[in-house]
From TrEMBL, chain A:
Stated name of the protein: Phosphatidylinositol glycan anchor biosynthesis, class T
InterPro entries in UniProt: PIG-T (IPR007245)
Pfam families per UniProt: Gpi16 (PF04113)
UniProt organism field: Cyprinus carpio carpio
Cross-referenced PANTHER family: GPI TRANSAMIDASE COMPONENT PIG-T, GPI TRANSAMIDASE COMPONENT PIG-T-RELATED
GO biological process entries: attachment of GPI anchor to protein
CC annotations in GO: GPI-anchor transamidase complex
UniProtKB/TrEMBL annotation, chain B:
GO biological process, one term: GPI anchor biosynthetic process
Alphabetic keyword roster: Disulfide bond, Endoplasmic reticulum, Glycoprotein, GPI-anchor biosynthesis, Membrane, Transmembrane, Transmembrane helix
Name of the featured protein: GPI-anchor transamidase component GPAA1
Superkingdom of the organism of origin: Eukaryota
Stated role: Component of the glycosylphosphatidylinositol-anchor (GPI-anchor) transamidase (GPI-T) complex that catalyzes the formation of the linkage between a proprotein and a GPI-anchor and participates in GPI anchored protein biosynthesis. Binds GPI-anchor.
Quaternary structure note: Heteropentamer. Part of the GPI-anchor transamidase complex, consisting of PIGK, PIGT, PIGS, PIGU and GAA1. Interacts with PIGK.
Keyword Glycoprotein annotated: yes
Amino acid sequence: CEIKQLSDCLIRLLLDRRDGTRTSEALTPAAAARDEFQEELVIRPLHSGDIYASFQFRTLWDTDFLQEGQKVSHYRLFPKSLGQVLSKFSVRELHISFTQGFWRTMQWGQPFIPSPPGAELWVWFHDTVSDVDGNWKELTNVLSGIFCASLNFIDLTNTVQPSASFKPLGLGNATDHRFLRYATLPREIVCTENLTPWKKLLPCGSKAGLAVLLKSEKLFHSSFHSQAVHIRPVCQDEQCTSKAWELRQTLNVVFDLYTAGQGKKEWSLFKMFSRTLTEACPLATSSKVYVDITDNPELFELSPATPLLSQAVVLGDRRTYSVYDLSRAETFGQLRSLNLLLRWKGDGEMLRPLLHAERYVAGFGLQTGEIHTVIYNNHPYRAFPVLLMDSVPWYLQLYIHTLTVTSKSRDNKPSYIHYQPAKDRHRPHLLEMLIQLPPHSMTEVTVQFERALLKWTEYTPDPNHGFYVGSSVVSALVPSMVAMNTNFTQDQPLFSSFVPVKEESSYFVRVYTEPLLVNLPTPDFSMPYNVICLTCTVVAVGYGSFYNLLTRTFQVDEPSLPLAKRLANLIRRIRGVPLLT
Amino acid sequence: MGLLSDPNRRKALTGLLTRLNTPICIVCYLAGIVWFMGLAFEPFTLRTYMSENAMGSTMVEERFSSGERALSLAKEFDAHKRKAGGMPVEWLVKAMQSRGLEVFTQSFSRKLPFPDENKERYMVRGTNVYGILRAPRAPRTEALVITAPCSPGNTNNQAVALLLALAQYFRNQIYWAKDIIFLVNEHDLIGTQAWLEGYHHTNITEYISGSLRGRAGSIQAALSLELSSDVITSLDLVLEGLNGQLPNLDLANLFYAFCQKLGVLCTIQGKLQRNDWDTAEGYTHAAQTMMLMVLKQACGRSWGDHGLFLRYHIEAASVRGINSFRHYKTDATTIGRLLEGMVRKLNNLLERLHQSYFFYLLPSLSRFVSIGYYMPAFGLLAVILLLRALDLWVHLGAPALAAVDGVTEAEQPSSPGVLTVLTPVVISHLTGVALYLLPVHLQEMAVEHFPVSETEAVVLTAIAIYTAGLALPHNTQRLLSGEGTEQGWKVLKLTALLYLAVLLGCTALINFSLGFILAVTLVPITASITPALYAVVMVLLSPAFTILYCVFIYQELIEAPVSVSEGWMLFLSVISQGILDHALYGSLVYPLLALFIYPCWLMFWNILFWN
């Protein structure tokens, strides 16, 4: 697979050479459609002492690739490589994330945009597409080249079509899940070779603006790293008369107090990224840094101070942010560089996330097992429903009749179950359930499985490592403590406006559990020669001859008489006297 | 096989085998014993080598330096342990939390089937404390475990302290690819068992334990640390686990490699390695080391906290610090570095340990005997049973052929066949079931009627049933068919021989040592048994006496010889421990002996009283 990736990267490099004309095109004034670019960094100090930095870059383009007869060839801010892919494969919505690490909900709270460990890709195709599977196959291969990732390993055996868990986030009310494809690669390792192509999609690259902070030696010296690309159609204005394309590139990283911060609860931009900010991206209409100071001033102090404050309702909580506008010269002060400094003063009480889920494999031995998914509702008095989605590879043969859902040691009957059984070597199991979580409770979903014996060519090169089962996805509308802002188009920070909110009293949360590593019965591949020789010998010598001995009936042969006696007997028979023996 | 399909040659072969049966059997037996003893001779063994590529070639630099801090932590831990009068749970939780681990506790309780007099416990209640070091940018799929038991009294304080010091050091490193679980368990094996069952959400031994909140995926390997002094002279590696399971040999190799690298004296079975294999002392030393391993493995109990991990396919070993009078001492920093090195190499693993051997015997840490070398020793013993069976089969067939000639009626010998054999088989096995069930269930009644404690009651009931089994009416065939015929006992012996061969064969596949020891004592007596044999010889080679001999040999080998009465007391405690191990951890030696080996031996006993 390394070689495959390498060749993908080469293709990507060649493509880039051709794409290099993009920047010169940007200078020509003949841009027909309006486009704009925003960049934003949110820094949230976490109660554990770690620090969470979330970058969002948004490119909006008032055009429509999918319109018949309109060939879009002029690209300014929007990356051409993605635009061409969207129009070629009639993609309505595309979400791809690469994550290295596991988001620790219990320590860090909810992330702005959640993602599972490894790679995740889900795509809504336009409903004019006739061969969705074919498009999906080609699309994953192309994306694999664009992002230098092993997305080409996505095939029918790990692709599912969730019926309820993944709804389009952008315009349009597509509900026919035949046009949806969802796949995860829990084993995908994310590193610099994925970061570089991701950075190249930005209008300023990593030359200016917030992107200068994205240095891989620091980003990968962290507890959690996640980068994503979300493309969807949105409204151009409040009336929503015409469609615009939105490209969001997000990058989330959590720096560890002990390994990156040397145990001191003191953070600065320089310590995190080994760079400071000196300018905004010249192509950006807005370029801002937000620092979550809701717990200020009791817990930490922030310097330099800023008079700009902003309030936003994020994930059911009203937060206050200090805003640093990079487009204003005074932000950078006399040193002409911005190096934010946060110093903790005390320990804070940890905020308990309202929804939390974890998963593990129970049992021992290589024959059967049980998958346990535990979902916690920490809300003190509100019950709410969650959608649980599980996609399990075919080589774990689920016994769906053993499925149990219990909350507070009582049976909890799901109000909706969508189960698609696996087909060996063709498609995975898909299980979706709508479960009502009682307030302040722990709900346990268990299902037993049997481990399949694979054909010997189906084992991976490292079969004793085990086989991965992707994260299960818990999606929920969690009751909010404060009224949410439903006005989607109003100008607000990017991090608070990703998922459209339909009602004021609750907000949407998606929680991913940890992936599972399951050992399958594995033959001893280290000595195939011995095994083959031994088996053949046993079969040929032992079994063959014993079978022969047991089934044959033995009779004693009459020894044949010598010729002289036979002749004598012949004569005696004629004479009628007794024969010789 | 053409040899067998030709009746004449077949006749010649069976003729040879029956004519020379006894000499062949004697030669096989002697050859088996000699082969086994030869295994310890160094030129016949292989040098150990690291098979796992991920652990062999990667370089690791040990930088752990807070050994002194660990020792002061040990004093602090000791003080808190005394104050709490047991495990200082709160202190441990705080200590782990302040080192940046995610800390969880698990409480458990278990009522033993009868009081354990060795460890003085009956109702066990305790708490396990464990902290998880989350590896950066890892998705919680793999974990390593380091455990240290929190023992009563002064023992193992240094182990817990070193664990905490390592946790602190490890937490500041970026290179972890697997989560690391630091477990401090109470009540040694019971705590470990409760934790493992909680972690894997199984319940095989009726523990009442709280569910675990924090997990870290599938555990790849575990190390258990036992350390009771500030400095040590040597480190002992303990490998024998439950039911004679052993961890992958690479784990032992890893330990040996780091001992060599850091210049730490290392032992196995408490015995240092010698270089003079060509002298008699050198050979005896190696043989003693190997014999100790065989005895420990045969008894099927877990010789350290690591032993219980093996059931869950987690490679585990215990490292035990020993402080003797030798003047060359190793300090805590070096032990810390050794563990650091081992854990880092395990962290480098891409797959579970699987490259090296799972079945082996170790005459020293640098030499091993693989399954291919030791199995023939057992095979030579087992083949005796088959040869005798063949001999009997031929003899049983021969008179039937002779009867066709006309002197006696051919029907007579075969008619009582099934019943005469079946009754002793059923009676023997019922006695076995009684031996398995009654000791534990009858203890209350026994305590009421006799002035003994529960433990004594259980052990003495077991011995009583064992002895009563000998006195049962074994000559049932007389009731069924009058006088016992020679044909009858031969059929019974044939059945019993084949039964024993299958039993020992299966046992040896799973636990070679147990199978071999049983074969050494059971094979000669069962092969040569006739109604004319003395009962005393039979009793002296019965399974119970085998255990007794093993106790004496073991004490001799660990250089702590005991008198006969002490040996008897040890024998009693071995029986009670065996029953407890079965109830608490699921060890299978007691049920194997009670339900299969003993009834099989009783079938032979039956033959003694045939006439």
